[in-house]
Each structure stands twice: as C-alpha cells, then as structure tokens.
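Supplementary material to the annual report.
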Amino acid sequence: MQWFGPLWLALTFAALGMGFYQAATAPREATMGDLYRVFFYHFPHTILSFLWPYVNCFASFAYLYLRGRDQEKAQAADALAVASAEVTVLYASIGLATGMLWGRAAWGIWWAWDARLTTYLLLWLLYVSYLIVRRFSAGGQTALIAAVLAIFAAIDVPICYESIRWWRTQHPAPVFGGGEDAGIDPSMWPAVLWNVGAWLMWGLLIIGVRYVVERRKQRYQAATALDFLNSGDDTVEAA
Amino acid sequence: MLKMTYAQHVWTHLQKDLRLEWRARDSINGMLFFALLVVVVFAMAFDPGAYPAITRQISGGLLWVGLLFAAVTALNQSWAREQRNHVLEAQRLAPSPASTLFLGKALANLLFVTAVEIILAPVFVVFYNLHPLGNAWLLLLILPLGTWALVINGTFFAALGLRSRNREMLLPLVLFPIAMPALLAMTQATTYVLTNEFTPNLWMKVLTAYDIVFTTACILLFETILHAE
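Predicted assembly:
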C-alpha cells in the first residue's frame, strides 16, 4: 500500500492540470466572456463543500456508536470527523472567495444577502464553530462534544437551507437542475467534469493526509499519557 | 421504592430550579437589566423617534437580539448552580431519566426569559414609539415559540460546555450559528406584527418545526452529554 499515496497524488495533479487546461480552453461564454471561467473553480468547490459535511456527520454518528464498544475504531471515526470538517471549511472558504470575486465583477458588489449566499455563509460558520469547539474543549471530552455538535450542525443545515430559500433570492438560478433555461453548452461539459473530478480527488487526498496525521497525534497522546501513568506509579511507590 | 412518572420527574426538577431562582433572583434581574441596556445602546446607534418607518422595520430584530444576548448571560449560569457541592455528580447517579433534569431546566429557563419579555416588550413599545400594525395577539404565540427555540438549544449547549475551557465564551459561539434559522423566523414573524406587510404563517411553521426537531435531538442526546467522562 506504500505506493498508493504517491500514485494518488500524481493522478490528482494530472487531473488538476487537465482541469485547468479544459477551463482555460473552453469556449468564451456569450454574455460574460472570460469572466465565467471562475465558475469552473467555484462550482466544484461549492458542490463538494456540501459533500464533506455528510462524511463529518457519518463519522460523528460512528464515533457515538463505537465509543463504548471499540475505542480504537471510535478514535479513527473521530479523526475522520476532524479531517472532513477542516476540509469542509477549506472548500467553503474557497467557494465563498471565488463567488465574491465573480460577484464583484458581474454584480458590482462583493456580497449580497441573498438566499444562497446566506445559507452558504451559515454552513461555513457552523463548521468554523465546530472547529473552535474542538479547540476549546478539555482533553478527554473533545471527541464527544464535537460529535454531538456535528449532529446538531447536520440537522441545522437543511432547516437553514429551506428557511432562507423562502426568504430572498438573488443568486442565479441553479445552473444544473434549475429549470428550462438552466444548463450549459455541451462544449463546456469537459471543463466542468474534469474540475469536479480533480477537486474531488484533491479533497479526498487532503482528508486522507489529515486523517493519518490525526491518528498519529492520537497515538502519540496515548503513549504520552501511558508514560506519565507509569512514571506516576514510581513516584507513588517512592513516596 | 417510590415510583414516579416521567412528568413527575420533570416537575420536580422544574420546581427545584424555580425555587433556587426565587431565593436568589439572579438570572431574571441580570437578564432584565442587560436587555434594558441593549435597548438603550441601540437607541444610541440610530434615532428611533426620527425615523418611525425604519424603527418599525427593525425593532423586531432588535428585540430578539437583545433577548438572545440577555438569555446567553443567564444560560451560562444555569448549570453553574448544579456544579456547586458536586450536585451534578449526584444527578448522574440519580435513577431518574437524565433528560428530565434537562427538560426541567429548559422549562425553568423558558419561564425566566418569558418573564423578562413580559417586562421588556412594553419598554420597547414606549421607548421606540411603536404601535403594531399587524395582529399583536400573535405575539402570544411567537414569543413562547421563539423563546423555546433559543432556550432549548441554549440549555443544551451550556451543558455541553460544562467541562470545557472558556465555558462562558463557548456558548454564544455554538448557539448563534445553530439558532440562525430560528432567529430569522422569529424576527420575520415579529416584523409582521409591527408592519403588517406580509403574512407570518410560513415563519410560524419554521419556528414550530425548529422547536420540535431540536427538542427531540436534545432529549435524545442529553444523557450522552451528562455521562460524558
């Protein structure tokens, strides 16, 4: 399995390169000109930042289930939850940033309190608060508190989405599945698919790396705690 | 052993919290003065007398923001009471269902925040020269629904942060993002009462759904939180 990581990394870079090439050579858009090309980065990042929270929610449920049953697997689930939450925040940040760049050029404003923008900002806020809670909570409690909070966040996302959609709308109607006028020219499909695929591979790669780092941290902490306990025994005997 | 129903357990916990508050009256007094200060601070930010139309538009939001800030100060204290003399450890050992402790406390907090609202709402009306153009009786539904939405999650997250560092700071950081759809709904519904520009039915439904969903989640997950170690 040693070769799997480097191979995945190489494939990811190849796909990202291909995505960039496709995005740069796709035909100019009729009304927006070259400006629309940011869509090829905005769309994959936003759509994928709605995928990672599911991983986070699943891992959190798994942690709560495994907690009293199999400590090792529970720790693994917790590591996956951290990794996916961090990548959610990363992708949502890039989605927000590219969206704001486009908004400034197309609408003339950086930000509008429109339904989709607001929901998306709330998604970002929810997972930032999740990461802050992880940082604040005391040692042994972190995983449990975070898992419970992740479930609350996952419940909140659909409620947020629906209630704000009823509230107001300025964002362009969804490009995919948004009615008769929606959709893109067939010549733009390769650029969209390559970029979604490439950024999906990239997201999985960094989740994997963060997972491995988190697992090593857990093992290191467990080893340190064990050392401390052992040395503690000695001092008790000596006293 | 004396057999008690679930409702009796909740009632006992509620009585205990009400009795504690009655003796000290810390939460209600603190919240009330804090909310009054928020009303005054907002009046510094804009002139409520000079722009009656704008005042009517935004007062619903201001009322709820003031209540939210005030509620957070009290919610942080509501579990601190249980930590004195290791009462919480005793609660863990008690044979009553863990969620009754939670529900009792949430109901007590609901009553405290409602008491503040009953005093604060007339103050708002007087200070901001408001007269509602919509159906003001709907407030009898909006206020309890909205307050419950804040208090149920607030009580839960206050318990969540019990053993964390920066407990006081943690609660708003967690509560505000999660409460955002409820805040939107209660603000919109209250704005309807003041302006009569749209119908509030949708927002009442959102609030009700939010209350039901999160009450269920809190009751299901509270035992996990209480026994966390």
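Chain B has one domain: 23-226.
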